[in-house]
Amino acid sequence: MSTPFRQGLKKVYLPNIVFKMVRSPNLQPNQVAFRVPPSCNKFDIHSYLTNIYGVNVQEVRTMNYATVHKKTRTGQTEVKQPAYKKAIVTIDEPFTYPSEPEWCALEREQYKLGSKNAGRKMKGWRFRGPEEERTRMKEIQTEIHERMEAEQGRKK
């Protein structure tokens, strides 16, 4: 009796391309947007999602975006954004984005408070912000520190 799958006889498909999922609020529930390299065509996108992730793809639409060039003050041209392709994939079941982790909200709030303090310093105002901002910044820093210690404890 032979087995249906033998080691070494099937070709292994390991792509070296990266698909980045993009949040697009104006899409239908069964559509997902990806940012893919410009060299990928619709057939590549369809086969990648079907073979690697086992997704039933119904339709693939693509849009090409050109490279954005900007000139500096000296007249040199530099690339601000490379060329990419956006693919909108229609799948057979509704898709929901995963919820945002709580550490993202903490880091976003820490960034917001830090940039506000930096702005005060640049404008020559008081270096220290109001008392409630300073206490909130300390709370955020302790929460982030506790989360990092918990992750270190899990790794050991």
TrEMBL record:
Molecular function per GO: structural constituent of ribosome
Alphabetized UniProt keyword annotations: Ribonucleoprotein, Ribosomal protein
Gene Ontology CC, one term: mitochondrial large ribosomal subunit
Ribonucleoprotein found in the keyword field: yes
GO BP annotations, alphabetical order: mitochondrial translation
Family in the record: Belongs to the universal ribosomal protein uL23 family.
Protein name, as recorded: Large ribosomal subunit protein uL23m
